[in-house]
Predict the structure.
Amino acid sequence: MSEWNRQVAKVALVTGASSGFGLLICLELARSGYQVAAGVRRPESADTLMQEASQAQLAERIRIIQLDINDAEQVSAAAAEMKQIYGRLDLLVNNAGEAVGGMVEELALDAWRRQMETNFFGTIAVTRNMLPLMRHTGQSRIILMSSISGVIGFPGYGPYASSKFAIEGFGESLSLEVMAFGMDVVIVQPGAFGTPIWKKSFGELQVTEGSPYKGLLQDVLDYSERTARDSGNPVEVARLVARIAGMRRPKFRYCLPQGTLWTAWAKQLLPDRLFQRIVYRMLRRR
């Protein structure tokens, strides 16, 4: 990158950039004029991203960075690479994650640990390592990709919801810690859009014969599939992230699509037990 670009072009780092929201966010940010560092666990997994970037004539604005957020050495090396190549970081989009599903009684403890290691501790590791560069940049922004599952816990979503509830608390604390440096923290809470995370995780979840939770879990899986199919285009989420990146004073939380926003509002307004009964009846409806 030229010295002129080092001084002028805004720089973004997006984790989990090889597919889903991460891939789409990289393209939208590049389209908005950002120099984008696309963090991926395996460089070869970025082929689709770069093919789509080339078709959109955006490839020169996207650089692939190997970044497994669970690998401390890679996270540290990525921070050093960002400093060396760009000399600044204006936007960090913590998007990388996975979804572990299953009933509390039936899911192994190791699965819970794996979920928290990726979605929560991995996000913390990336943020900690990037903060010095972001403080130096000034007026930078961190976007945390949470979920409606960070607001409402559904049966069978226990590990995933727990990790996203943790991200919500992390984001609230972090926002106050970095405020004095002119930095913003924003939380985005998408509903169950049809991205690969659901196919890789909940899509592979099997209903066990003889399980006392068999009927409920099947209802949850059916509901999740319908919701993901009807939630709209995941590009809407990427475009929202790009808009937030360019806002002067963004809100702290954004929730989409509209149906998901109404559900979040209902939880705030209704008595807890009434809301739980409504959700339970909704899930059991076939």
